[in-house]
Amino acid sequence: MKHLKEKILRIATKAQEGHIPAAFSCLDLMWVLHDKILQKNDKFILSKGHASIGLYVTLAEKGYFDIKELDNFGKNGSRFGGHPDRTKLPVEASTGSLGHGFPIAVGEALGIKIKKSDGRVYVIVGDGECNEGTIWESAAIAAHHKLNNLYLIVDQNHSLDEALNPHDLEKRFEAFGWYAVSIDGHNHEEICKALTHGSIDKPTAIIAETIKGKGIKIMENNPEWTHKYPTPEQLEDMIKEL
Amino acid sequence: MKKQFPLTIEEVIRDDRTILLFADVGTFGFRNSKKEFPDRVINVGIAEQSMVSIAAGLALQDFIPIVHTINAFMVERALEQIKIDFGYQKLGGNFVSTGASYDMASWGCTHQCPGDVGILKNIPGMEIVIPGTDKEFDSLFKQSYDNGCPTYFRLATQNNPESREVVFGKANVIKKGGRATIIAVGPMLQKVEEACRDLDVTILYYTTLQPFDHEALRENINGDKIIVCEPYYSGACAVDISSAVAPRAVEIVYIGVPREFPHCYGTVNDLDAFFHLTTSDIKARVENVLTDK
After folding, report:
1. What's the CATH code, domain B172-291?
2. Which of A98, A134, A146, A176 should we substitute to test contact with B (largest number of B Cβ atoms within 10 Å)?
3. Of A85, A133, A138, the CB nearest to B54
4. Which CATH class is domain B4-154?
5. Which sign does the torsion angle of CA B162, B139, B40, A108 carry?
6. B249-288 pLDDT tens trace
7. Calpha distance A188→A34 (Å, rounded)
8. Has this prediction a pTM greater than 0.80?
9. Do domains B4-154 and B172-291 have the same CATH topology?
């Protein structure tokens, strides 16, 4: 993961654009999904679209495009921006406005069920995103339709706990009729195990405990770094720290 | 039109690409379709924003979603979902609303939505259809439901007495005259025809507002005045009309719903009277414009 994080740091710093800490908190989740889980008919939606730079380096690493394309991240003429645009990129949904990607994923899972096709739908939301009403509307709808082909991963980096207590997300999803499990969102083995769990008639919610800015001490859980970029000296120190 | 929609659905739902989502509105009317195609006729519950996003997910799975509820809750509550999940993502789907501007006059302003057309005009790629009769809705819907664009259909309780042969994206010339051009949108045609029966004016009938038929207007500007009679907040098509008219010097007058909350109840006709939109009001207003030098 270190080399992916180094790429995120270098690209975001050069562009002075992108949410580095948000990308670091869900990078392990996205990497395991793309490296070990996703099959031909599966879909993945990054509902917390502001972590796009993490998705871009993951997709580049998996060969979807040349990493050099990210040199122009966020700049005029680039197809890679602060939030992904599905009309320009090999991503499933254009996300950014929170609370959209998850219900879109519910629609995809429902469509797959109706067509009696195989394929699973995976979606990452932020724990702050769970403030949005559509998350809970759609959670109820997904459970009602028994979408056991739907896997929701909550990137629980606690960045919004102060504003609104999320309470016990595992219990909340269970109360909505989901199978729910809590894991260490940086432990690849636990991620993999949770993502391969099968349920007969329930969607799966994986509450992934994560650290915003994971791997860079000054950045970890530090709101100052939400939109901040390192100086050239800080950048080299951070890369050493990784 | 509210009764026609379930009948149209009973036919269209046979296309196995279609799927109907509704937010607990029209449930009884869809019972036959639900019985025959339970997987593709879904009451999602009262969750309009999620309903629209879920419809987008279904569109990504190659379905043609048809979304239905009251326009206030579809257009105003779920506006961002229509804008981003369909408009920005360039997905096709159909949004069939009920309620028009104040069809639910007795229910109060919470269930009224005269702003829908003007709001949706701001979504690039959005198509807007305002039929004037059941038959016109049925025809326009069947012409366009699978065209790959997000399309809004505005159902209304006020129907014109006669259906026209309507073509998606095209305006109809109802009559030709020399003193002015009157644009009648959807269910306004009945009032406009009656109001202008004895007047030497051109009447153009628009049932598709987006894409706007600029050519029909450009070719039928008679006199130096255009009067736009529209059943929603007036001026929603002002940019289309002024660009079609340019560079001619023509006075443009809008007769539509004023931007005002009617803190009163009653029937559609009561609110028409409240807003000075009865046939006699329109006749007087048109005559005033024509005589105004």
Report:
1. 3.40.50.920
2. A134
3. A138
4. alpha beta
5. negative
6. 999 999 999 999 999 999 999 999 999 999 999 999 999 9
7. 12
8. yes
9. yes
